[in-house]
Amino acid sequence: MLKGGAAGDLSAARIPRAVSVAVSCLAVIFVFDDFVRALDEAHDLTSVLDVARVVLCATAMALSCWFPRVSAVLIWLAIPAALAAHNIGSLIILGVVVCTVITATTTVLFLCINAGVMLVAVIALATGWSAIGSVVFWAGAFLLAVSIALGLVIRALMRGSAERRRQEETIRQVREQ
Questions:
Q1: What sign for the dihedral angle of Cα 135, 136, 140, 141?
Q2: For the chain, which has fewer Cβ within 10 Å, the N-terminal or C-terminal residue?
C-alpha cells in the first residue's frame, strides 16, 4: 500500500480506491455543464482553448487519485489555456482538489514543485485579471495554502493508519512464531 519516496522522504500512502472512484465520478459530473457550454460556443481559437481548459481540468481531477503526477501536469497545462481563453471557470476548484491530492500522496520534492508551479499560476492569473488582480492573488494564495495544509493533514492520517497496520502485522507475525 505504500510507495517508495525520494531520498530521505518517508513513503506516502495511496488514496483509498472508494475515494478515488468517487472523485473520478464527481470530476465528470462537476464539469459536464461547463464542457457542453464550451463545446457549444467553440467557434474561434479562444473558445477552442476554453474547451481545452475544460478537458484538461476534468481529466486532471478524474485522474488525481489514480495518477497524481499526471493530474498535476494536466492542471499545469490547463493554466495557460485558461489565461488564453480568459476563463478560469472550474480551474480554481479543480486545482485545489488536485493540489490537495498531490500534497497527500507524492514525494516532498514533487509537492514543492507543484506548490511552486501553482504559486506562479496564482501570480499569472492575478496579472491576467488586472481589474481584480489583488483579489485573485489573495484568494488564490489562500486556497493554495488551504489545499496544501489539508493535503498535509490527509498525508499524516494515511501514514499513521499505514504504520498502525504494519505494526499490527508485525505483532501478528511475532505471535505466530
A1: negative
A2: C
Taking only the tens place, the pLDDT of each residue in 6-21 is 433 444 456 777 777 7
The Cα–Cα gap between 85 and 80 comes to 8
The residues facing 2 across adjacent strands are: 13
Pull the grid cell for residue 52: 481545452
Say if CB 62 and CB 28 are below 8 A apart.
yes
Q: pLDDT (tens digit, 9 = 90+) per residue, 113-151?
A: 999 999 998 998 888 777 777 888 898 899 999 999 999
